[in-house]
Amino acid sequence: MDPTLEVETAMHAGGARYVIGIDEVGRGAIAGPVAVGLCLVDAEVGVHPEGLRDSKMLSEKRRVALAPLTTGWARYTAVGLASAEEVDSIGIVAALGLAAKRGLVAMHEAGARVGDSVILLDGSHDWLNPALATPLRVQTRVKADRDCASVAGASVVAKVHRDNLMIAADTRLPGYGWSGNKGYGSAEHFAAIDQLGATELHRRTWLKVTA
């Protein structure tokens, strides 16, 4: 099933001038940052890029091709990050909120009217507002990354951004297979940790849980 703008259009019709689709990437990884993508659309945004889907349903090659098309289509896009150290320090849910907050700040600084927007958040739990000093209007939706083009766009932008960071780590911290595993817990990745030890990219509290 391809995503549409039906949900966003209904939100616009209900009075929302802007809708910001939000999705996270890297939540289940054992290394690397957690990334939160944001994709702002309005009623005049037009047809989304052909083939846009939740990033998990796309090949790496297709995601890489779609990311700039999504950025060109949406009114604004941004990606916020929270580091592995922050995930260890405050927990994954709070880290998601921190990453989203950073993405919203970046979007605001780029000119987006964040305060006038309604947030369309993938999932059933509002993990965003607890991280904000001033609450935003949040509408959660299960499988929004599958059904809603703004959230699918957010997932693609975040996934490509995070993947590029992990690929770049191959040069700085070789031997862990970052380009292939992107920080997720493959057998080869765990074997590399056993041989070489953990790095600053690893979520050390998660390694204890998975050991």
The CATH topology corresponds to: Nucleotidyltransferase, domain 5
Spatial strand order of the main sheet: 3-2-1-4-5
Stretches where pLDDT falls below 50 for ≥5 residues?
none
Summarize the amount of helix as a percent range. Answer: 40-55%
How large, in whole angstroms, is the Cα Rg?
A: 17 Å
Q: What is the CA-CA span between the terminal residues? A: 38 Å
User: By helix and strand content, what is the structural category?
Assistant: alpha/beta
The percentage of residues in β strands lies in 15-25%
Q: Characterize the biggest β-sheet.
A: 5 strands, mixed
Q: Helical stretch count? A: 9
The counted number of beta strands is 5
Full CATH superfamily name: Ribonuclease H-like superfamily/Ribonuclease H
Pattern of helices and strands: HEEHEHHEEHHHHH
Morphology call: globular
CATH architecture: 2-Layer Sandwich
What is the CATH class name?
Alpha Beta
Task: Give the mean pLDDT.
Answer: 96
* Total number of domains: 1
Function: Endonuclease that specifically degrades the RNA of RNA-DNA hybrids.
Protein name: Ribonuclease
EC number: 3.1.26.4
Subcellular location: Cytoplasm
What does it look like?
InterPro entries: RNase_HII (IPR022898), RNase_HII/HIII (IPR001352), RNase_HII/HIII_dom (IPR024567), RNaseH-like_sf (IPR012337), RNaseH_sf (IPR036397). It is found in: Cytoplasm. By secondary structure, the protein is α/β, with parallel strands linked by helices. It has helices at residues 6-13, 60-73, 84-90, 92-109, 144-147, 149-172, 178-181, 187-196, 204-210; strands spanning 18-25, 34-42, 76-82, 117-122, 137-141. It has a five-stranded mixed β-sheet with strand order 3-2-1-4-5. The chain is globular and about 55 Å long. The mean pLDDT is 96.
